[in-house]
Design brief:
Ribosomal Protein L30, Chain: A
Length: 61
């Protein structure tokens, strides 16, 4: 089974670029302190890398 990661939005998307807002939506994040548990894939990692200043990443065992 693939490893999972927990992504939590810690900053607002107001003033962010369109592609950054799209990454937040794609990860399932809508509001501050919302979180989502996702598979640890290269695609997800790339989305997180684009918005690393807006989110916090935790590993889930």
């Amino acid at each position: 089974m693939a490893q999972k990661i927990k992504v939590t939005q810690i900053r607002s998307s107001i003033g962010s670029q369109k592609n950054q807002k799209a990454c937040l939506r794609g990860l399932g994040l809508r509001k501050i302190n919302s979180n989502s548990v996702l598979e640890n894939t290269p695609e997800i990692r790339g989305m997180i890398q684009k918005i690393n200043h807006l989110v916090r990443i935790d590993s889930v065992e």
